[in-house]
Amino acid sequence: MHWLSFGSQYRCIATEVLAMIKSATRFCTLDLNQGVAVVIILCILAAPVYAIDFNIPESTVTEVATNPGYYDGTFTRGTIAITGMLTNLSDGARISDGTSSIAVDAKQISLFDGFEDGDDVKMIGVFKYKNRNLRESLFVPECILHWPLIDSGTVLVPELVDHPSSYNGKKVTIIGNLSDIRESGMGYMIGVEGDGRYVDVRFYGRTVLDIGTEVKVTGIFSAGTLYAETLAKHRTLPFNVPGFSGLVLVSVLVFVFVRRRRYR
What we know:
The chain is of the alpha/beta class. It folds into 3 domains: 1-47; 49-149, CATH 2.40.50.140; 151-233, CATH 2.40.50.140. Helices cover 25% and strands 34% of the residues. It contains 6 helices and 12 strands. A 5-stranded mixed barrel has the order 2-3-4-6-5. A hairpin with a 2-residue loop joins β11 and β12 (225-233).
């Protein structure tokens, strides 16, 4: 299962609950507007805390800056993604596209680990339009990705744990033992162990894997957590020849088998 977004997950549930509330309001003092408010609150409380939609379409900094009311997530718009260049990290971060720039909330320092001024990024989070309580419009990120997305390939668990800044905001694959698994909202909180080190994984699919199973996990590493796109049992060929990939080895064996049959 791929990344989940809030709207698609709970629209059907909210519709059904709203229908029930309409029926219930005939027999109690709760009016329809109050009922709608209850639905919204319940949906927010039911949403998985860590479900980030990494595939959300991108907007440019200029698009957001020139139409701030439309993108304002304080009450209506919700999560958006913007792309641009990361600047001014040493004195209040900003994201810019050369024409416009927007201030970025940098309170969650771990999100910026490994990033430098001038890096091209995609930020996913909430845009807050300036008001009497906010002197300047502000983007509050839930995650920051190197953009275009960098695929770091397979990384050893100890390497990922010891050098998180090298992989922060990038796609990685790890192989290790499933050490812990707990249901959380619509997904799982998972621990993956390798050589005595542990990686925290969030997965929003379905799995029947047991603790102790060797697994292969691919996803986005952000702020010390691996948000898994895929989680599966790690399967290896029952033989190993140095210098040969599994596909090459199988091809060689098939070729030898065919030739032997031909000359019998």
